[in-house]
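ingest -> validate -> predict -> emit
validate: passed (alphabet ok, no gaps, 339 aa)
predict: started
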Amino acid sequence: MRLRTVVAGLLVAGALAPAAGTLDRSTPAAASSPAGGIGIRLLEAPVAARANARAWTYIIDHLAPGSVIHRRVEVFNTTGSPKRLSLYTAAAQVRDRKFQFAADRTANELSSWTSMDRHEVTLAPHARSAVTATIAVPGKAAPGERYAVIWAQAAKAAPPGGGVAEVNRVGIRIYLSVGRGNPPASDFTIDSLTAQRSPTGQQIVLAQVHNTGGRALDLSGDLKLTNNSGSLSAGPFKVQTGTTLAPGDAGSVTAALNEQVPDGPWRARIRLESGLTKRTAEATIQFPAAGTAQAVKAEMDTSQYPTVALVGVVLAALAAITFLLIQRKRRSRREPSNA
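emit:
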């Protein structure tokens, strides 16, 4: 029989087998479980990404084949009793606009490249401990982005005579891009906005997003509404988190209004971000009496792009200067000395 439950606000999958089964509560996020549980968090980020809050939540990196990195992770116990934690890495994938983790200790390429300096930690009540994860990319690894999860797991055996064994685990996602040179750029477009009314009457706005970059995106943001005269406004309303788009993928993110507003028309402005990549778009929408209205093409705020373009120009100029200096140095070595 299948059992689905919510832990720490995230939808997780569990399995309850007959007789001596296992109840699996898994939280693939870099955060603690609810008060009175086990937790895990990342202690460091790459120097180049330290301004990126997402890089402090997940392990996000770009490595050339043959590279090795180390990341410190902290596990902690917020309960009043000792906890023995198993530490391991297992497979994950981005599919159906979600970051999906595999069952149990299912392996993939990235999980096989990742090891922990300790496979088990025993924590006293309200104690914490740091461990180190090492990712070693093989020299012949093919380019592309891969996903995995570092898990900390506490298991409770089934009672004598049969019953249910309980497994609690919390984890840190890994997004690893493999390739030479600079990492693939992150980018996305907001293509349309759609007004919707749920069966319970709640007003909802859906934003259709296309991942046009080379890295997976974890989208968050907010929505603001203003009437045509500008005399009435509503929001900001938070975008529901949990949407992850793989490179080239497209899907919708949802902003559910927590208050009733007139049907409109409204000028809707939505701001979305994934790490340091931020985009804003606007469209005029009107909430239907029921169901879903027709999608409206969104107008992207192009004022955000000059900065990106300028960075590209600067990087290109630096590369050209470096190339010229190398060429000059090579020529000077070939020219005979007059001394």
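Confidence is low (pLDDT under 50) at residues 1-24, 30-34, 306-316.
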